[in-house]
Amino acid sequence: MKNQSKGLFSSKKAHLRFTLLLIVIFAIVSFLGSAGNYYNQLSDSLAKATHNVVILPHTKEIPFVLGLDLQGGTQLTYEANVKNIPEADRSSSLEGVRDVIERRVNSTGVAEPVIQVNRSMNGDYRVIVELAGIKDANEAIKMIGETPLLEFKETASVTPTVTGTSTAAINLQQAWKNTELTGKNLKSATLKFNPNDGTPEVALKFDEQGSTMFANITERNVNKQVAIVLDGYTISAPTVNEKISGGEAVISGKFTVAEAKLLVQRLNTGALPVPITLVAQQTVEASLGQQSIDNSMKAGIVGFLLVALFMILYYRLPGLISVICLGIYALAVLAIYKAMPWWMTVVFLSSLFALFIYVFKELKIFDGILSVGLFLIVFIFLGYYAHTAVTLTLAGITGFILSIGMAVDANILIFERMKEELRAGKPLDIAVDEGFKRAWPSIRDGNTTTILVCFVLMSFGTGLVKGFGATLFLGVAISMLSSIVITSSLMKVFVGKFLARHPWWLGVKKINN
Amino acid sequence: MINYQIIKYRKLWLIISGAMVILSIVALLTWGLRAGLDFTGGSLLEVKMAGGQPTGSDSIILRFQETSQEKHLAVVDALKKMEIAKGGMTEIRFESIGTSVGADLRSKSFSVMSLVLLIIILYISLAFNKVSKPVVSWKYGLIAVLALFHDIIITAGIFAILGHYFAVEVNTPFVVALLTVLGYSVHDTIIVFDRTRENLPKSHDSFAETVNHSLNQTFIRSINTTLTVLLSLLAVLVFGGTSVRDFVLALMVGVFCGAYSSLFVASPLLVYIEQWQRRK
Asked: What is the distance between the alpha carbons of residues A108 and B140, in angstroms, rounded to a whole number?
């Protein structure tokens, strides 16, 4: 263990200077990423104070992405009724539903919808539509709900006794059964006028697959009725005379021109391939969200100060170092929540990675397959999240504040270990190194389980749990790296004659030399 | 150097924990957890009145069964016509959750919990595979999971009591809190076990003495870490607003139990297992 080569000793100072430089770079990038607006204010006032002598370039102010509970908005959950769709086609139909809803909402221009398709435990499909910033959800609900569902039905073996004509609602429960053809296969709809009597009609054109389906349906239903059903209402149930293979059909209900026009418009923005029903709805007003943000900010600052105070009072100089480390940690975590631009992502990750390799190599604690696997996964996820934004929810922010309390755990472990080594009579520099080395397996095993729990949370499905899992993961991952890497480098700065003579600063009675 | 005789009084700690667990189970069986909207389905409408409120707070929360969008609008209209809404009324929050969504969440929560427990046993068996004497590694995992059950059951039991007396409800955040407690508690237990793992090969004392020594070495770090976590949670409890209060409370109770169980449940159980093995 103590076979440190002598060549390294001469370059020890250069080594230390290099790691400190990396820490400073990491801290600056974290600050720019997390608090770009404060930096810009700072650079403005600096320019003013120095009469435009010192002009710092401005940085891009990146906003946080806030969840619905923080910025206000509406979440709608629909359940898709897929019982008529063969198992294999279900997920593709759901993709269809997703696209249609997206087009529908986009066409009104009210919001950028976030739409997810989820599967529940018993196999139901759910479509979750998030409309940020929308206070009045009614319009959106109406619009999504009114999206037409176009179905083609053929007679079941029992011939129904349908009297009267098309537009009347017919109970289709027993007499009709679904065919494979739905609005999903519709290519376009156009308004036409019947050449004989001039009444408006809607002409449908199917895509390639739809054309074949339609040909098959008409072929097996010659001299039988085929119903064209819109939102559960039969608009037309003509009798098929012959096989139609051109991929075109005409709905000739008793429309007025306005009705036909509306139908065309609605069919063209998309017909739902499966029926959906609204099963859950949540609306939060923006003011409630703002209040939550203010509360969380206050809680975060107070939490930070309490933890900082405790650490300094109990651990003295190492405590102070851990608070500096905690400050950098908090900035880094806030920065990674945001979608940082490429250059920041690269600097952020490479400075952290370089620090990590450097310090771990020196402490010789990079051991075994568990560590390698852990770091591989951690860095892949950090890379992903550095460039993409994490949607912050109230639970997520709570997760962040919780992680401030947990982040010092690694420091506490290290400092307690260091004190123990000092009490056992080891000289200062050895005790500091041993403290880090010996605390590492505990830090690794403890954090790995938390990270595994985070992955389970992230795959849980609902937005709230996912967001909490992601924020807790980032907190744990960054704290694990920063506490070892940053704290150990800063500790080394102070390891010297002064500390050896003043053990009070370390919270021990006596230090052997 | 501190030297508490924790292992010596192991019977006492386990009796205290056993009693807490039994009380919690009784509370859970007699009262059960008060399931909130997320699990039962239903509607919640929060409105804010411009004028002063008879209740003192400026918003009112209405709870009713799962309802359609039309009914929701009708309720808001009816409210607006009431006397108290004279000064104007705004809708702050509306939630309506179908019963099927609630049922799904319930079954999902259970499967996620089971998955987490399984992963934890596997990980500990893997991480401790070098220690096989005198207790094999998977038994460490088993004990850690027993300690987890202890934490989860007591936290849930306390919420059953809170639900019965103070109408505190259990929603999705509660499940998240329990999962986080799982992570935290096992983290804590592992750190104590880790010390035992490190001390065992070089120790000349008995197994029980080695475990007790390891407990003392990790005692201060356990207390301090729990303290910093509880401090940061306390800040959220006081300043975080009402919407996260129950969530934070569940976390605090769970973190406290987790810290207790890693010192006073997991290690004593380890000593019992070793004793029992020798007797065979």
From this structure: 59
**Chain-centroid distance, C-alpha A277:** 25
| A506 neighbors A435 (Cβ within 8 angstroms) | no
DSSP β-ladder status, A176-182 and A150-155:
antiparallel
Domains assigned to chain A: 12-62+286-506 (1.20.1640.10), 73-282 (3.30.1360.200)
Q: Which of A121, A292, A452 sits opposite B241 (nearest CB)?
A: A292
ipTM for the complex?
0.85
Chain A closest-CA separation from residue B221 CA (Å): 6
CB B27 within 8 A of CB B157: yes
CA distance A404 to A478: 11
Is the peptide bond preceding residue A200 cis, with omega within 30 degrees of 0? Answer: no
Kindly list the residues from chain A whose CB atom is less than 8 angstroms away from the CB atom of residue B119.
Answer: 449, 452-453, 456
Q: Which CATH architecture has domain B10-36+100-279?
A: Up-down Bundle (1.20)
* Torsion region of B32: left, alpha or beta (phi above 0 gives left; psi -120 to 50 gives alpha): left
B184 touches chain A (CB under 8 A): yes
Dig out the tokens for B117 from the structure. Answer: 């427990």
| Interface probe with A: pick from B62, B171, B236, most Cβ of A within 10 Å | B236
Which of B215, B52, B186, B172 has the alpha carbon at shortest distance from B118? B186
**Amino acid sitting at position A442:** S
Task: Spell out the domain ranges in chain B.
Answer: 10-36+100-279, 42-97
Q: Which residue in this structure is represented by tokens 């289709």?
A: A172
Phi, psi dihedrals of residue A274, rounded to the nearest 5°: -135, 150
CA distance B29 to A318: 49
CA-CA-CA-CA dihedral for A358, A360, A364, A365, to nearest 10: -170
Cα A349 to Cα A355: distance, rounded to the nearest angstrom: 10
Strands of the sheet with A125-132, listed across from one edge: A113-119, A125-132, A73-80, A276-284, B89-97, B42-49, B59-64
Would the pTM of this model clear 0.90, i.e. be above it? no
Question: For the segment A450-490, what is each residue's pLDDT rounded down to a tens digit?
Answer: 888 888 888 865 666 777 888 888 988 898 888 888 988 88
pLDDT (tens digit per residue) in B143-182: 988 999 999 999 999 999 999 999 888 888 888 888 888 8
